[in-house]
């Protein structure tokens, strides 16, 4: 296991911060025009309380910042791989791409949903919160506290349903779920290293043989001159 240096840790941290700032700016470029347009074009949006408007901005900016920062950190880590590690990453990526191409449309949708189930639940939760607040806020005869409680209950109910759906995607029909392929990455890397070592040894032996052959020919030429 390779121990990272302080410089590498600082570089990783800088990459994560840059990714977070980039995601924050991207979210702001989406949120500011959207909510500004809603403010000037929609009377209903202007009547919403300030905390709810701020919440709408936050649920756009924060996920965008976190996702972008995490992706920047992952990309930085992948860029540091060299030699056998990089070869193994390329091999894994190739296997995943071939597996994806061999699936039909339904299998691709299920596979994508399984891989991104937490993102789907989180995004659906944010949409459910905003939708429930907007739905409840239009109901007359309720106080602000009652509206907040009702909106929270509706959002929690929808979130629980989404989580159950995500669990169903993971655990439903286990008999038809193909077994997970064992991870032979370390074995593959060791085998590749051994192959590279053998290839290098063969090259060295070949070079030594060529040098010996050249010396032999030079010796033959020298002997022929002496005889002549």
In words, what does this structure look like?
The protein is mainly α and 228 residues long. It has 3 domains: 1-80; 116-173; 189-228. The chain is 85% helix and 0% strand. It is built from 8 helices and no strands. Helix 1 runs antiparallel to helix 3 and helix 6 runs antiparallel to helix 7 (144-171). The longest helix is centred in the C-terminal third of the chain and has 43 residues, at 185-227. The chain is elongated and about 120 Å long. The termini are far apart. 7% of the residues are buried.
- Low-confidence region ranges: 173-177
What's the main sheet like? none
- How many domains, as an integer? 3
Strand content: under 5%
Radius of gyration: 31 Å
Number of strands: 0
Task: Give the structural class.
Answer: mainly alpha
Q: What is the average of the pLDDT values?
A: 76
- C-alpha geometry: elongated
Residue share in helix = over 70%
Element order: H for helix, E for strand:
HHHHHHHH
| Helical run tally | 8
| Distance between the first and last residues' Cα | 65 Å
